[in-house]
Amino acid sequence: MDRFAAVERELRKAAPHLLLDVVTGALRERYDVQSVELRLADYGMTTLQVVSEVPLVEPVPVHDSPQGRAFGAQEPYVQPRATPGPATAHLPVTVRGDRLGVLTVTAREGGWSREGLAEMQQICEALGHEILVAERDTDLYLLARRATRLTLAAEMQWQLLPGRSVSRPEFSLGAHLEPAYAIFGDNFDWSVSAQHLTLTVTNGMGKGMEAALMTNLVVNALRNARRAGLDLAGQASLADQAVYAQYRGELYAAVLLLRFDLATGGVEAVDAGSPRMWRLRGRKVESVEFDAQLPLGMFEETEYVTERLRVEPGDRMLIGSDGVYGSASAAGEHYGHRALARSLSAHRFLPSEQVPLALLRDLRDYRGAAPLDDDALVVCLDWFGRQSSAGDPRV
């Protein structure tokens, strides 16, 4: 534990671009490692890219690679060896449920004990925390996440996002956007306090920069209202006024706002447009219907009303933008409820952070060769409920 604390201190003191050097030095000293390599998942979550000032190493796929196995399972993976010699371990780099990448460590000889792997995993967690802090001061880690160049609109949208997954004892949540390198107006946001999870999914009107600017206004207006202590309806109203003041009804944004009570599973909702929600309870998938209210910014001083529902431990909630459920196959059939329900049921054993990508792969198969003609956003929330001292969820 003292050795781990020493590494944490060194990471905190290191220059932002030297974090991997600190980890490499610590692992060489403690475990006589031969090499250390850090890879981060790209924006599309399809490849793991090497972190380097001059990235000459080829990316590896998230699926069907040893590094991807550790990334997907979220546990260390030691590559099997046919003969004695150097051993290679891949360790996930994750912060509060947000999967960043994989650290690969190769020993000069032999391998590692279970305790050694556990200590290296702790170091990976500390590294992940420092990467998120370092991104304020260096582009090194952000550049490593790019398999290709982002459009300016996508750059603006990705900078708005809180992460791609988050987990707490009460819930686990994952989200993804496609096309990852050219997104327009779709966005998601969340905030967790001691009492609540607030989740918003936005589908901004327009294309390109127009949509990116609109969504930036909406997301920041909602954050401003939330941080001012307004209730959910008040948050919608303030953002509505901000959008209308800027665009006078020519552009508007469809938003679904949700606030989950972590202690009880009670949910407040404001449905102000097109994002839709489905619930998988047991083996049954059903659409969660709300009273549709006007999108934000369509008219001046719209009043919004909060609805209420309840989630139960074991529930899986899925939210999709119209680029998902409205997407059409080559034959012209919309993806809709039936195809989405089949996909959600088929992937019910995957953790929430893997569901959005799995569903979007199913969507691509459904569309065939036709490219996406709109943003496709998927958010998946698994609800566990808060555990009492007796171990039973309080619902």
Structural account:
With 395 residues, the chain is α+β, with helices and mostly antiparallel strands. 33% of the residues lie in helices and 27% in strands. It has eleven helices and 17 strands. The strands form three sheets. It has a six-stranded antiparallel β-sheet with strand order 3-2-1-6-5-4, sandwiched between helices. Strands 7-8-17-16-13-14 form a six-stranded antiparallel β-sheet. Strand 5 (88-95) and strand 6 (98-107) form a beta hairpin. Helix 7 (208-227) packs antiparallel against helix 8 (232-247). The radius of gyration is 22 Å and the shape is globular. The model has no long low-confidence stretch (mean pLDDT 91).
Compact description:
α2 (19-31) packs antiparallel against α4 (114-134), α6 packs parallel to α7 (208-227) and α7 (208-227) runs antiparallel to α8.
Give descriptors for this structure.
395 residues; alpha+beta; six-stranded antiparallel sheet; globular
E-strand count: 17
**Treating each run of at least 4 consecutive H or I residues as one helix, how many helices?**
11
Strand content: 25-35%
Radius of gyration: 22 Å
User: Order of strands across the widest beta sheet?
Assistant: 3-2-1-6-5-4
Give the SSE string: HHEEEHEEEHHHEEEEHHEEEEEEHHHE
Q: Outline, from the CA principal axes?
A: globular
Mean pLDDT: 91
Fraction of residues in helices? 25-40%
Structural class: alpha+beta
Uncertain runs are none
Give the end-to-end Cα distance, rounded to a whole number of Å.
38 Å
* Major beta sheet summary: 6 strands, antiparallel
